[in-house]
Amino acid sequence: MWSFGADATTGATIWATIALVIFIGIAVYFGIPKMITKMLDERIKKIESDLSEAEALRAEAKALLEDYARRRDDAEKEAQSIVDAAREEAFRLTADAKISIETMIARREKAVTEKIAQAEAQAVAEVRAKSADLAVEAARVLLTKQMEAKGDVLVEQAIKDVAARLN
Fold first, then answer.
1. How far, in Å, CA of 38 to CA of 70, rounded?
2. Beta-carbon contacts of residue 10 (< 8 Å; ≥ 6 apart)
3. pLDDT in tens, 81-116
4. How far apart are CA 120 and CA 114, in angstroms?
5. What ranges do the domains of the chain cover?
């Protein structure tokens, strides 16, 4: 039909080109390229804001990570200092307990020694008392036997001694 003196394919290509030019003209007339540009610009701005927000969030996350790492290090140092202090306290308490036990042992040893000395002194005193009692009993028995044998002579001698002293 309107092939402009060319074959059908060339005519169709010409009509397709004319239709494309008309379509582009209508699109430009109604401002479609501006709308597409505006939509693309808005999309670019949104992507940029999302990227900047993501960057800010990444920086914040990095700061939080560093803060938590610092806190963990501080907590580990504090835990180590607590362990060291507890170890020192345990050593000190052990030393104090050792000194206390040694003092208590010395006190008890002294008390036992004093009790032994006291028991020895008491035993010696009892032996002396028993010896004295035995000596008195032996002297009584001896004097009784001597008095039976020499009693009269001794009484006369004692009377003479008393009389001589009185005069």
1. 47
2. 3, 4
3. 999 999 999 999 999 999 999 999 999 999 999 999
4. 10
5. 10-150
